[in-house]
Amino acid sequence: MVAAGTAAPPIVVERPQPILPWVLAGVFFSMACGLGAAWWLAAATITESKSPPVSAARNAPPSEGILLITRPQQEAIERALSDLRGGMATHALSSLRRVQNENPRIPSLDYLLGLAALQAGKIEEAEEAIAMSLAKGERVSDSLALRASLEAQAEGDAGWKPIGDVMPAAERSLHEAVTADPANPFPYFELAMRWRLRGDNARAKEMLKSARLRLQPIDAHAAVDVTLRLLELQEMEDGSLPQLPQEAAAPADLFAAAYLGLRLGEDEQATAFLQKARASLPPELYNYLLADPAFAPYRTRPGLAEEF
Q1: Residues 122, 3, 227, 307: is their CA dihedral positive or negative?
Q2: In this structure, are residues 234 and 260 in contact, taking their beta carbons and an 8 Å threshold?
């Protein structure tokens, strides 16, 4: 994809590296559940139009315990995250640079800058941002994983096998990432890929099982997509509701069709959509999505008790 007419330059490596894809996938997968947007969860205050000047936020002593982030800065980071997910790394990097110039105290900003710079092929900038994130003690496990991708790229073919008892730098960083946050699944997954490349499938399976235990049982993208669709339908007047579709496949479409059927009094069709969703989704995800408040008014409707 192209951002403002400028294509994000690729990261050139000597052989395909599996580290960067899972880093990016992890960020994009987790945007809705805290990984990509953790910067604002840590902020104590989001200021409105009456906020103190940005210079006050930048120069305020850490002992105050309050981090001021303006709404334009919040929106700029959200747009940058969207650009990253859409492959527009150069555009995202420019946006994050502007935010950093205004307010470098925003949590996780250095990590996001490192990620965007790495995607955009700005290796030196990525190294600097990752080092700053680690120095601040922010997103340590994720930052170490990003550092591992840079190290694997620098090591090339030589980095895939230990030399004697010397562990490659990228692998050391991944082990450090595991130590920093044992609940983070992605370093385990990447370590599994490295063991596979060495032909040690038994060790790879151990790492993959460890990664699976640490994966969130709820697909955050599906949860966000379903919730947004249900909110949109909830806000519609009865006379403006769309027609009930005959078929649906994606989770958002299935739950939206089920809600629409309930709203229109087509309980049999609504039940069919819910049954299809139940059959196609993991039980944890189905139950989580079915707990949406949009379905609350219909839980006691005769004939629907089994679905709820």
Answers
A1: negative
A2: no
φ, ψ of residue 46 in degrees (nearest 5): -105, 115
Full-model pTM = 0.65
Please give the structure tokens belonging to residue 239.
């006379």
How are the residues of the chain apportioned to helix, strand and coil, as percentages rounded to the nearest 5?
Answer: 65, 5, 30
d(CA 88, CA 7): 7
Task: Give the integer Cα–Cα distance in Å for 22 and 190.
Answer: 7
Tens of each residue's pLDDT in the chain, 308 residues: 333 333 333 333 333 344 444 343 343 333 333 344 333 333 333 333 333 443 444 344 444 444 578 899 999 999 999 999 889 999 999 999 999 999 998 999 999 999 999 999 999 999 999 999 999 999 999 999 999 989 988 877 555 666 666 688 889 999 999 999 999 998 999 899 888 888 889 999 999 999 888 887 777 888 899 999 999 999 999 999 999 999 999 999 999 999 999 999 999 999 999 999 999 998 888 988 999 999 999 988 876 766 66
* Class level of CATH domain 2-214: mainly alpha
- Where do the domains of the chain lie? 2-214, 220-298
Among residues 56, 32, 33, 154, which one has the least CA distance to residue 105? 56
